[in-house]
Design brief:
It contains 18 helices and three strands. It is mostly helical and 390 residues long. It is globular and about 60 Å long.
Length: 390
């Protein structure tokens, strides 16, 4: 640990938001923003999204390697068996849906807080061997909870998970009870793989901080969800589609006018720009391809708007170009798969929980508390404590 004195000597060098500060090492993956590249273990994440299923990549995050056919089948069966919720948790979902309303991430946090004790999840410090089992349970149950809360909010009965479907197909099945189209399953697989993990973002770091205390898996994921829900982090793929609506509604269908108006008002261009990538976001390029494969007028419209918005931004802000980020085409892909806009961010959570859990286990294995220091820059101590006046 760095001493307070040494930190104080470097007070002017503490980067806001810990930008660029390495806090630990990891074997899970990395983001190389300047190169426009990110990877899971030794594989390009984009290549995995193009060629592998979400279940295969889930296996990679658990075991550090890709499965062969037999291992993939065995893993799919084992994780699918963990999708069903304990009766005590399922019985509380109507009340949770009513209390949390449209905030499904809040509902998920509440349900996972119940799920942990029901499955006997103990602190990882006390029972490290249970970590793999408990993370599998949380990852498998998360889609079941979110789909059930979504349906209950709309006056519908939850659709029970199926063990004969892949994770992507089962998610689509639980949302509307219809047999999912293979093209939609493949598109959703690509999206889920592309968003499993993305460096030491705020929610991943939060999960690791809680894991470092030796807490149970459910607590780690609930904490990560709290960070993920913040408007500066979890993203909002539905807002990117709202931008397309706003262009028609507020700018007469002109992306150029819409961008100019928002820049003049000092507003963000939703779906463009990223904290890490200085050039194109590789996830956006991938999902543009996926959207094009799904086809339809929305995909064509989004591609045209992306091109025109990027050109306008380059003209109006040549010193600070912005490119489409993962949110922009993610919404197009999910809407093309029949996922309601209110379920875009929950779908993101279905993917990211696998990444969080991998980081939880990696951090817990270190068995060392994350306890950083801060630079104090308040009034100089010690100052005499004033007497209490009458």
């Amino acid at each position: 640990m760095t001493s307070t004195d040494s930190i104080g000597a470097a007070a002017g060098q503490v980067p806001p938001g810990l930008r660029g500060v390495a806090v630990t090492s990891t074997r899970i993956g990395d983001v190389r923003g300047d190169e426009g590249f990110y990877h899971y273990s030794r594989y390009s994440a984009v290549d995995l999204a193009r060629t592998r299923t979400f279940d295969d990549v889930w296996f990679l995050f658990v075991h550090g390697r890709l499965p062969d056919a037999g291992e993939a089948a065995e893993f799919a069966t084992a994780t699918a068996e963990r999708r069903a919720l304990p009766d005590a948790v399922a019985a509380q979902l109507p009340a949770i849906a009513d209390a949390c309303g449209p905030d499904l991430l809040a509902g998920l946090r509440t349900a996972l807080s119940l799920l942990g004790p029901q499955h006997g999840m103990r602190p990882l410090w006390d029972d490290p061997a249970a970590g793999t089992r408990d993370t599998a349970t949380v990852c498998a149950a998360t889609p079941t909870v979110l789909a059930a809360l979504h349906r209950l909010r709309h006056g519908l009965d939850p659709v029970a998970p199926r063990t004969d479907l892949s994770s992507a197909a089962n998610w689509l099945w639980m949302l509307d009870g219809a047999e999912p189209a293979p093209a939609h399953v493949r598109a959703l697989d690509a999206y889920l793989v592309a968003t499993v993990d993305h460096g030491f973002n705020a929610s991943t770091f939060t999960a690791r901080v809680v894991a470092s205390t030796g807490a149970d898996v459910a607590s780690c994921v609930v904490a990560a969800l709290g960070a993920f829900a913040g408007p500066l982090h979890g993203g909002a793929p539905d807002r990117a589609l709202e931008s397309l609506d706003a262009i028609d509604r507020d700018a007469g269908g002109s992306p150029e006018r819409w961008v100019a108006d928002r820049l003049a008002a000092g507003m963000r261009i939703m779906g463009f720009g990223h904290a890490v990538y200085r050039g194109p976001d590789p996830r956006s390029a991938l999902l543009r391809e996926v959207a094009a494969e799904l086809g339809g007028p929305l995909a064509a419209r989004a591609a045209d708007v992306e091109r025109r918005v990027a050109a306008t931004l380059a003209e109006l802000r040549p010193d600070h170009p912005l490119f489409a980020n993962v949110e922009f085409h993610a919404g197009v892909v999910m809407e093309g798969c029949g996922i309601p806009r209110s379920m875009f961010t929950p779908t993101f959570a279905v993917s990211r929980v696998v990444g969080w859990c991998a980081h939880v286990l990696e951090q817990a294995a270190e068995r060392r508390l994350i306890r950083p220091s801060a630079v104090y820059d308040g009034p100089p101590p010690p100052e005499p404590v004033p007497a209490r006046g009458r």
